[in-house]
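Long-time lurker. I teach an intro course on protein structure, and each term I like to show students one example going from raw sequence to a predicted 3D structure in token notation. This year I'd like something fresh instead of my usual example. Would anyone be willing to generate the tokens for the chain below so I can use it in lecture? Attribution to the forum is fine with me.
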Amino acid sequence: MIDRPLSLDDLLCFALYSANNAMGRLYRPLLAPHGLTYPQYLVLVALWQRDGQKVTDLGAALNLESNTLTPLLKRMEQAGLVQRQRSQEDERSVIVTLTSKGRELEKAAAEISRCILEAAGEDVAELIRLRDRIQTLTARLQTAQ
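-- Reply from a regular --
Happy to contribute to a lecture. Here you go:
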């Protein structure tokens, strides 16, 4: 327990918020030459991992609501990165698939990841442990809601 007034440096939420902002600023110039925003990049990563996902599954994987994801996917479709089609099994579902242009960007992702790792300045094993701890914290916080 802290026996003095809280400062920003005391808050875990502010540390995570600041790290998220710093990461976003780091990604921005790496993604700009490809015409991508960070959320669009995350959609591509999810589709590189498993192409042909339902919008609802993408939203769950990315922790995005459909009212945020749908306009994002529309812009990506207009840019020629993905296609959206109604599922033949269930017309209520929309399936998102990569186009050849979207698939080609996966090659550039390796260089982006290398730049991020270099900027983080720690060994990969330490970064993996940090990522795992943050994922555990995220799961706990989601369970507490």
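Some talking points for your students: DSSP finds six helices and three strands in the chain. The longest strand covers residues 82-86.
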